[in-house]
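Shipment paperwork, digital attachment
Item: protein structure file
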Amino acid sequence: MLTSIHFLLTYTCTYKCDHCFLYCSPQAKGTFTISQLKQVLEEIKKIRSIDNVYFEGGKPFLFYPLMLEGIRMARAAGLQAGVVTNPYWATSKEDAAFS
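Attachment content:
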């Protein structure tokens, strides 16, 4: 049963790791749009077994406003939201709690 969806927000990353199966790097291009996120989240709501959404990349924190809006939209749709990323150090308590 499908219980979670992973959004690959971007291929852009702060690193170019040899083990990265997505070939993400600082030079990689492309990102989801808010419109695309809304459309997919509407479809996800139709699949009742899905209760988790993860935002990842690349480095989703490079597109912080997009990632935050995706998390807000997912939570508004009644979904749990998570972030998969390389190490990130929040610069405020609010950011750390939201992550």
